[in-house]
Amino acid sequence: MKKLKIRKLNIGQLGTLKIDIPVISIGTGPKRAVFLCGMHGDEKSGLFVINELLKEVKELQGTIDIVLATNPLAQALQQRVSPNDSHDLNRVFPGNAKGEFTQRIAKEVVRLCEGASIVIDLHTFQDNAPIVAIFMNSGTSTIRKKIKDLIKIFSPDAVWKLNFASQDEAKLTGALGPILANMEIPNFAVEMPECFLISDDQIKRVKEGLLGVLGNVGISKSDIEIGKTSPPMFHKINIRTDNAGLFLPAKKVLSKVTPGDIVGQLVRLPLFEAEDMKASCSGTLLVIKTRDLVSTGDTIFSIGIKA
Q: Which of 220, 224, 219 is nearest to 208 (CA)?
């Protein structure tokens, strides 16, 4: 592995505390990949993937920029949103250099991504899930095709195609991915299980997918066999609970479901009354909550419907 270089993107100060975004770089050359970790401060799996990736990057013909903590304050406190202004960083893009603190982070991240050959944003599902790539469904037909081709090379278990007409996903117009796609910058996001749930094999698969993408865009040599078939693409339907209680999952991710299938059980509190939680439509189970205490309105599982 070539020597890593580190630089810091200064955002500003909170009192006397200087806030910087740490970026490590490897390689040189005009072709450039940007990998982002910690867009949400409680998402850590991406760092474990990067740890493995750096061991195998070789024969670079370009540059890789890796953001270790896209939202450093949130990462330090291991919470999803910015602690100082309570904003979700991945809802305020393209940002504002003169705006609130989180908006300034967003603007700096967009600047970092300008001119990149590929940007991949590494996220973490909070529940049991497969390896999922997020297709931003934005930009021209040319950039959409390019992104789909790169996702095929990455070879996830499934692809989540954003649907901005959906009430749950309308807010994602302020995510980084659609903004970059509209700027003609190829990009996609990756969702994977939490660091205490993700398997060594899943980490390896994400690492190899990233190496395959780097090879395809001409940044590094890769011996990884690239995906030959397109992964299934879905719109995601979130199923929420109307009650509070103990959720007990009954199915595994990527299971096929039909209307009425029992996906889990909710033991309602305070009287410990059992209630079957059923699928409302046919599709593929993309995400399911682990055994947990849930509240009214929580998403307990998500079904993928072919897009």
A: 224
C-alpha–C-alpha distance, residues 206 and 129, integer Å: 14
* Main-chain dihedrals φ then ψ at residue 132, nearest 5 degrees: -125, 130
Do 119 and 133 touch, CB atoms closer than 8 A?
Answer: no
Task: Enumerate domains of the chain plus CATH numbers.
Answer: 5-216 (3.40.630.10), 237-306 (2.40.50.100)
Asked whether residue 49 carries a pLDDT value surpassing 80, the answer given is yes
Residue 2 has pLDDT above 80, yes or no: no
This prediction has a pTM of 0.96
- Angstrom distance (rounded) from CA 251 to CA 261: 10
